[in-house]
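Suppose you are handed only these lines of text.
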Amino acid sequence: MHFQLTEEHLAVQDAAREFAKTELLPGVIERDTEAKFPKEQVQKMGELGFLGMMVKPKYNGGGMDTISYVLAMEELSKIDASASVCMSVNNSLVCWGLEKYGSEAQKEKYLKPLASGEVLGAFCLSEPEAGSDATSQQTSAELSGDHYILNGTKNWITNGSSASIYLVIAQTDASKGHKGISVFILEGGGEGFVVGKKEDKLGIRGSDTHSLMFTDVKVPVENRIGEEGFGFTFAMETLNGGRIGIAAQALGIAAGAYELALAYSKERKAFGKPISQHQAIQFKLADMATTIEAARLLVYKAAWLKDQGEDYSHASAMAKLYASQVAMDVTIEAIQVHGGYGYVKEYHVERLMRDAKITQIYEGTSEIQKIVISRGILR
Ligand code: CAA
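From them, the structure of the protein bound to acetoacetyl-coenzyme A can be written out as follows.
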């Protein structure tokens, strides 16, 4: 066992850190305030290869491992979690499943532009009545000749209006429960496809989260991924990896808040010395540093297991559960270290606290992660 990153990993980490500082930091407060999608920034992320990091080069990807991906996610999330969630969804929830289970024709047509960042993808599982209870899909896909006809509503869709390619989970045979769920590649913008209003959120305000409505939307049969009935397994397997990305996002948010609190504590003076010289602050920094390191080990371990081809479903759930709690705890304490300055936008930590909260909710709430973990323990 060793805990060292390779030269390649360090290079990815450096590149992501540099990108976050030079491209994401400028304007991040304004984008949050105005709930503005980081369009130009995401475009540059695509040009630099951040949107298809793990996809094979023959499909326009970076051919990198999952460790590289979590390192990049961590660095981008320190600064702008609205941008990093686009990256996470495109890499883990869209490209991964297409590469693993898509046909050669689907990969040529859809994976290549997604991996190169030419277009963005979205993953459409959640519905108004099917969030944690994901088997209760109401969206239907009925076979009619060489097309399926999609009807239904999807909720909380990240990249909802900026995506061009949507992976849609839908019921093809309601009598079969979760074994009657299938997955389709849908090109956005067609007849009957409506993007609802952008959600006005607590955090990750720049990310464009929308409902999507389908009324008799036609999807060609060749756009089904795998066989009919494969959709739920596809979604669960996809989320196993997605949770590593969100765990890395939570880790980055926590680490970003900690770095700000540490720097501030050395500058800010109270009672004649920097506040970092007071034990009350030192203990907070010690707790932050320790829990962040523990979260980092869980995240890297889950990524490593995935790279080894081992089962990582429980490790990814543990990483997300723990890292998202650390993100909440650390961001709240980072505000406390900043005192009144932490409560205003200029110092960034209040945004990081608001951004942290979603990591306990999306891609499976903390309660769902505990279901996954306990089933793993008890099986
Ligand atoms: N990995 C692989 N397969 C899994 C799995 C996993 N983690 N969890 C369940 N499955 C399989 C089961 O083995 C079972 O398959 P078989 O019937 O072939 O044996 C099947 O799925 C059904 O499983 P359960 O009987 O356990 O189903 P359940 O209804 O009791 O519980 C659940 C399933 C784990 C709670 C699941 O519904 C779940 O994960 N819910 C949360 C959904 C979620 O994470 N949504 C996030 C939305 S996406 C998002 O947030 C994206 C974004 O934009 C950022």
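What can we learn from it? The pocket of acetoacetyl-coenzyme A is lined by residues 89, 93, 123, 125-126, 132, 134-135, 158, 178, 232-233, 236-237, 239-240, 313, 362-364, 368, 371-372 (CB under 6 Å). Residues 118 and 145 are 32 Å apart (CA to CA).
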